[in-house]
Amino acid sequence: xxxxxxTGKTGLFSKxxxxxxxxxxxxxxxxxxxxxxxxGLPDTIRMFPxxxxxNDFRKVFELGEIRAVWHVSGCADGGRVTDESAxxxxxxxxxxxxxxxxxxxxxxxxxxxxxxxxxxxxxSPSDGxxxxxxxxxxxxxxxxxxxxxxxxxxxxxxxxxDETVCLEGGRDREISVLAMQELSALLMRMxxxxxxxxxIYEAGGSRGTQxxxxxxxxxxxxxxxIEYPGSSxxxxxxxxxxxxxxxxxxxxxxxxxxIYRLPVSTDWTREIAEQYxxxxxxxxxxxxxxxxxxxxxxxxxxxxxxxxxxxIMFLLAEYLARITSESVYxxxxxxxxxxxxxxxxxxxxxxxxxxxxxxxxxxxxxxxxIGISGLLLFYNVENWIPFVYYLTAGAISGYxxxxxxxxxxxxxxxNELIRNKYLxxxxxxxxxxxxRKDLWTQILSEEDSYGKIYxxxxxxxxxxxxxxxxxxxxxxxxxxxxxxxxIYQLDPGSKKALLLSCCRDTGGxxxxxxxxxxxxxxxxxxxxxxxxxxxxxxxxxxAARVKYNRMLxxxxxxxxxxxxxxxxxxxxxxxxSLWYMNxxxxxxxxxxxxxxxxxxxxxxxx
Length: 606
What we know:
Layout: E1 3-8, H1 15-24, E2 26-30, E3 45-48, H2 57-60, E4 66-72, H3 85-97, E5 102-107, H4 115-123, E6 133-138, E7 141-143, H5 151-160, E8 164-167, E9 174-179, H6 180-192, E10 199-202, E11 206-209, H7 210-220, E12 225-227, E13 240-242, H8 256-259, H9 268-283, H10 288-300, H11 302-323, H12 335-347, H13 349-369, H14 374-379, H15 385-459, H16 465-479, E14 485-490, E15 496-499, E16 511-513, H17 518-525, E17 530-531, E18 542-551, E19 559-568, H18 578-605
Parallel strand pairs: 1-2, 1-4, 2-3, 4-5, 5-6, 6-10, 7-9, 8-12, 8-13
Antiparallel strand pairs: 9-11, 14-15, 14-19, 15-16, 17-18, 18-19
């Protein structure tokens, strides 16, 4: 089974989009952890916690037959523009080493990397390694992105916090909006379609203006402040400045939606509204203050928890020290020392030192209350003992905590390494089993195909060329599993092809004019098989020339060359492959041999 490898900023693909891709093909997803939002994905999607800079990254290339690699750059969906040349070069080198012909880089027009040089380098490698065709896809303003910090997500967050959103460029600036589902469909066609050319392409979407986007956002949240630079009223400090991707880049080699003829949804207003509703439902009806506190806690993380524990435990220790200072039972118990040890054991050496310093400050204040000045405290060495106790206790307890954490991390890292090795071996085993099944199926298919070809030769072995044509139409339609197989006869000037009478039951066109399909006529006249890779409206999907010599008149006075055009007018999605085209070419060759045999038999009998 063909596999697509996703690398780089793979969070761009949401769970729904990954399920859509996984339904079509197998996916290797790198750079992601198995928890969180990606739980419950189908079995065709396998996740590996490695990045292109890791040493184990190359092992992913050995797990299956990878058809294409998708690399998402860091500037995708409004990310920071960074130089990723080293990672892309390494990915291209691995693609060349493992004979993966297609590398697709998903980025934006703001990315200033030397993509033309990269494309030229790997289109014809100087070291003799395998060719890698690199295609760069420049994306517009995306909806349905899985990134928590994507453009649309940042706009929604600012709107919910009652912050001002400033759309750079003015109200009349043109934008292009594309859904992630549609972008994935374009990328799938690039990965599976036989036609694939290196270059820089634009993934265009539904066109509009920034004013239309502003009206859409205001319809979702009427109280939001969406403004433009230089608008009335000064923009406050909390303003979110948003620059959307430019359209109609001059360096592009084409537009993907036109090359692959995939429709683009025009109802991007509904898609934006649905994404906002999903965000509001996920975060609940939290107030802006609560959202700010939640965001601060998520950003601060462990540090905020440590400071909070330190403050609460410090106040509790001082309170207990004051109420137990006159008790006889607590004369030999130092509550402050217990506080220092607890903080060191719980949060490490930094928290232990902080607790010790706090207690040292409190101890100086207590000495001042009983009349011991700072100068006397400094010169009397005996007064240093409590300070030494606190600092030593904080350092030792914190060191013990950090050593234990380091051992835990070491064990977890070792377990992760063992787990990755297990996953690698498991994938290798599953791939070998799958390859064995595929090879067995191919062997059976080959045995069956020999019988079909032998049967086709016997069925097309008729007395006259006309009878061969009638039988060939029926045989070709059955073996190609396509009811649109037709045979035309070319006129002597090769300007027009007329449909044979045995094929007129389909009710289609009766002739093909060279003016409408000039490129097809040139291809078949050179002896090659035509494939409609640009999906031209007037040309058939496949076409091949078949010719033979037939005698003139009843008395053999010479021969005339008769040329037929065998076509497949329409083809299903599973019939747009190199194997199908080769199968069609072989059957056309058998048809030509049958015609020559019938013509020879006709001349002999006459």
